[in-house]
Specification:
7-stranded parallel β-sheet, alpha/beta, globular
């Protein structure tokens, strides 16, 4: 019966082989996702057994399309489809290129291909030539995440190595669900443990429990992909009051206030946690949250989104290396540290990417210039992961082979960051919204952090970044982020890659933390001085242009048309307008000048060339006179200013009026007398106006006494602010010291553990081992070496050439030195003075950066084997 069922399943489930259609693959096309849940399951060694258990426990009508990706032999046809057909009542088919998906079907990837999902169809591509890049499970999981977003579901079962871990991370980051087999139930636990180590797995279950959970997910109104079921999810909303209660519960557990994070993101993650726990009512979930501290931590970790990878958006890093870092290098004096801050560093990939760029850019000055990279995140597990510096093999798809060789060491089934690169980065926990920032920074990278926060919090953080940067410092944001309406803080350097330079001058401090706000208020004078220093450089250029044009009355305005410098007598053309004071040149323009001046400014700004308007009539008091307006762009230090010159047309160029007839002259006389009377009347009015001004001046003098009292109070406040400023600077410095101290403590703990492990290892090894440095100084030796090589504890640090070993090998020191110099391993059979035989093995010692740093001398006891061989020879 079993054979008949197996044969029937093979005939029913095995279509023609996909390998016949892999000669040319069509482009992956888009389209709507199917109205049922799609699950990607990855496995390797031992995966058939685990997947079979999962299928046997899965209902045949669960409204799921299951896609199984397993490592298969590339040169052999797979019988996996037929074998799986005996363990499930659902149809099992091998994928063909462009095959559509159907509910309650199981799809198996063919050998020697990679697979993508798009528009409800599966597309096949040949496997890459580089075997190290062939991770079919990660590849398919990434495709699943791109296509299905929050509806993506990924499962990792038994297998070796780490394929699938990186893909599960991508699924979790888009809001999907990540499951892994319990390592204790897996035949090979490498893949499940690697997935769990990412801290991105929602549930760790045995295969049968995974099947039950998948059935629940497919039927749940929140997580279901079916439109008819999704409409029911509209009832599962969370009110604002319930969200406030959630934030109140989360704040003590993680120390993060999510109140200013964007509501849609919070809502999706909250509903997903409810679905995983089979809770449909928000109040019931809140009660569960209040009673279960573990769920509070799980929700907190779910809300912290860690979207990162090495050299993410590589074009932005190329622009950073090509256009930004050289400027930072040229602006940094010798001996001054180059300071950077990676805010929201997640698991450290972006911080190490920046470290690689800085190391490459400043390689020639590393001895003279220190590089400091402060990498911070609000998640303690992410910071710990970044400090460890061990990443999966899949980073080879993002990091070039040359950089992998130079900055990473392949070990423990992954790539570990070298010590030279690791020393450039200081990792620490920091809440951007609450903790004091770093200061005097050359560069800040804050990518894809602001997009999860509302506009008020974004404005606050941008003010913090402006404070933290040096004058001319650079801010790098993500592709989906901008500075919004904060144009007064930053100057755009590269629009496509969101690179901004800090603008000098005063800033709004309303949204900064209280202590930082006081600090910036105190520094406002210094910032203004910096701005005036820049204006003086511009003024020198303006003076040259004015001399070329015979120095007509002129003003210099910035990009926003605010006056930054007056030159000459401009009162005939500009005057303050009534109301709130303003230096906007269009608000200062006298009657008749506004239209032409605005047109000239707009033309100069648009074309970046000189613009001129002639024949304008401007009113000065009761008279009108003609004026020409000239606008010239002036570029200085990546900023554009505009020089506005007011020129009176040459009187000789005007046409002389013809002589009027006698009657008209009489009429002109009457008009002239009337004009003179009008002038007298205007003089009388001016006298009255001056009298009024004198009265107002007396009133102002009376008010000045009150102002002096207020100024005294302001001086006292200024003194208090100076004290607050000093306190803030000390606090910022203390924050850096605490950060470095935490880092050093972490490293000391690692060194202590490593040293204890090494001592215990050497004590338990019954082999004579001696470790020497490049200059043949003794570093360590095992207890067995004391007798064999005639050593005592005080010999540590002595030259190896000064000891008198018990073995008969006078040239031992020379052999060790030669092994270090030639980087070769030496083996030789030797005897001690009692005739005991040993195998001497000398091999070069490699440090953490894979460099030769001495040698390891080991003596293995082969006396018994040697004497047995001699006895055998004698008997023969």
């Amino acid at each position: 019966m079993a054979k008949k069922r197996h044969a029937a399943a093979s005939r029913r489930n095995t279509p023609p082989k996909a390998t016949a259609q892999i000669s040319a693959f069509p482009a992956v096309k888009g389209g709507p996702s199917p109205p049922f849940s799609i699950v990607g399951i990855g496995a390797s060694a031992g995966g058939f057994e685990a997947f079979s258990q999962l299928l046997e426990a899965l209902p045949p009508d669960a409204q799921l399309a299951i896609i199984f990706v397993q490592h298969l032999a590339p040169q052999h046809e797979s019988a996996l489809t037929a074998l799986l057909g005996t363990h499930s009542r659902m149809p099992v088919v091998e994928v063909l290129d462009g095959m559509g998906l159907h509910a309650n079907h199981i799809y198996v990837v063919p050998p020697n291909v990679q697979m993508d999902l798009a528009g409800g169809r599966l597309y096949l591509t040949p496997r890459p030539d580089d075997k190290s890049q062939y991770t079919p499970i990660d590849h398919f999981f990434r495709s699943l995440a791109r296509t299905l977003k929050q509806n993506a579901i990924g499962v990792v079962l038994s297998g070796t190595a780490s394929d699938g871990a990186d893909g599960l991370r991508e699924i979790k980051l888009v809001g999907g669900i990540a499951l892994a087999q319990d390592p204790d139930t897996a035949r090979y636990d490498g893949m499940p443990r690697a997935a769990i180590a990412t801290r991105m797995v929602d549930l760790v279950l045995e295969p049968k429990a995974i099947a039950a959970k998948l059935a629940e997910i497919a039927a749940h109104p929140i997580l279901s992909a079916a439109p008819s079921v999704a409409r029911q999810a509209a009832d599962h909303t969370v009110t604002e009051g319930q969200l406030d209660r959630v934030f109140t519960l989360l704040l003590p557990a993680g120390g993060v206030d999510f109140a200013h994070y964007k509501s849609p993101t919070i809502m999706r993650r909250l509903l997903r946690r409810m679905a995983l726990l089979r809770i449909n009512d928000a109040d019931a979930y809140l009660d569960h949250l209040a009673q279960t501290p573990e769920e509070v931590i799980n929700l907190h970790n779910d809300l912290l989104i860690h979207v990162t990878r090495f050299f993410r958006e590589p074009e932005a890093f190329e622009v950073l290396a090509r256009e930004v870092l050289p400027g930072i290098l040229s602006a940094s004096p010798d001996g001054q540290a180059i300071r950077s801050w990676v805010a929201g560093c997640a698991t450290g990939e972006e911080a190490y990417s920046l470290a690689i760029l800085l190391h490459e850019q400043f390689a020639e000055r590393l001895g003279e210039t220190r590089i400091q990279i402060f990498a911070t995140d609000v998640s303690d597990p992410s910071i710990e992961f970044a400090r460890h510096g061990l990443y999966p093999l899949t980073i080879a798809s993002d990091v070039s082979a040359e950089r992998l060789r130079k900055f990473f060491t392949k070990t423990d089934g992954g790539y570990r960051v070298t010590k030279a690169l690791r020393d450039l980065c200081v990792f620490a926990r920091q809440d951007l919204t609450r903790d004091p920032p770093f200061s005097r920074l050359d560069l800040i990278c804050c990518r894809n952090v602001l997009i999860y926060m509302d506009s008020d919090l974004q404005k606050k953080l941008l003010s913090v970044f402006h404070y933290a940067l040096k004058p001319g410092g650079v801010l790098l944001l993500g592709h989906a982020e901008t500075i919004g309406f904060n144009n007064d803080l930053f100057l755009l350097m590269n629009k496509k890659h969101r690179i901004y330079r800090k603008k000098p001058g005063a800033i709004s401090t309303a949204d900064l933390p209280t202590a930082t706000r006081r600090t910036i208020s105190d520094l406002a004078g210094k910032r203004a001085a910096d701005a005036h220093a820049g204006s003086r450089a511009v003024a020198a250029e303006v003076s040259r242009i004015m001399l070329d044009r015979y120095a007509p009355p002129s003003v210099l305005v910035d990009e926003n048309f605010h006056v930054v410098h007056f030159s000459g007598q401009t009162g005939a053309y500009l005057e303050p307008s009534p109301g709130e004071p303003s230096f906007h040149v269009l608000k200062l323009a006298r009657e008749g000048l506004l239209h032409g001046l605005r047109a000239a400014l707009q033309t100069a700004q648009k074309t970046r060339r000189r613009a001129r308007k002639t024949g304008l009539n401007v009113k000065d008091g009761a008279t009108w006179h003609e004026v020409d307006v000239d606008v010239s762009p002036v570029v200085q230090q990546d900023q554009t200013f505009y020089l506005i010159s007011f020129e009176t047309p040459n009187a000789s160029a005007r046409k002389k009026p013809r002589k009027a007839p006698r009657r008209q002259r009489a009429s002109n006389h009457v008009e002239h007398r009337a004009a003179r009377l009008e002038e007298e009347l205007a003089a009388t009015r001016e006298y009255l106006q001056s009298t009024i001004q004198e009265i107002e001046a007396a009133n102002e003098e009376m008010q000045s006494a009150n102002e002096e009292i207020l100024s005294s109070n302001e001086e006292l406040q200024s003194t208090n602010e100076e004290l607050d400023t000093a306190k803030e600077e000390l606090q910022s410095t203390n924050e850096e010291l605490n950060t470095v101290n935490d880092e050093l403590q972490g490293r000391n703990e690692e060194l202590t553990r490593a040293n204890a492990d090494l001592i215990n290892l050497l004590s338990s090894v019954h082999i004579a081992i001696v470790i020497v440095s490049n200059d043949l100084l003794i570093r360590r030796f095992t207890p067995m070496a004391e007798k064999t090589l005639n050593l005592i504890p005080s010999d540590v640090g002595r030259p190896f050439t000064q000891i008198s070993p018990n073995i008969e090998l006078p040239e031992l020191s020379a052999i060790v030195a030669n092994a270090i110099e030639t980087v070769t391993q030496v083996e030789r059979e030797v005897q001690d003075r009692q005739g005991h035989w040993y195998l001497l093995r000398i091999r070069p010692y490699k440090n953490a950066d894979n460099r030769i740093d001495g040698a390891v001398v080991a003596l293995f006891d082969i006396d018994a084997a040697k004497r047995a061989a001699s006895s055998q020879v004698l008997r023969d």
